[in-house]
Amino acid sequence: MAREGISAEIIADKIRRAIPDRDSRKQLIGHLRDSQNAFETEGKEEAAATLEHVIELLERSDTT
Predict the structure, then answer these.
(1) Any long-range contacts for 5-13 (C-beta under 8 Å, 24+ apart)?
(2) pTM
(3) Which are the contacts of 43, defined by CB distance < 8 A and separation ≥ 6?
């Protein structure tokens, strides 16, 4: 989704609805970080930035 130009807010919302359990999302966040790093390595900065924002949104919602 990050490569398709979908906003970080929409992606994070879909993840929250699909995986409502905060502990389960922690593992997914780790995978998202790996994907973000891969996008950066490939020079896909826009997708990497979107994932960074998704991660921030998910972490923020898990602490509130």
Answers:
(1) 5/46, 6/50, 7/50, 8/50, 8/51, 8/53, 8/54, 8/57, 9/57, 11/50, 11/54, 12/54, 12/57, 12/58, 12/61
(2) 0.83
(3) none
Paired tokens of 22? 């905060």
Q: What's the chain's average pLDDT? A: 89
What tokens does 12 get? 């994070």
Strand (E) or helix (H) holding 57? helix 45-63
As a whole number of angstroms, the distance between CA 46 and CA 52 comes to 10
Residue 59, pLDDT score: 92
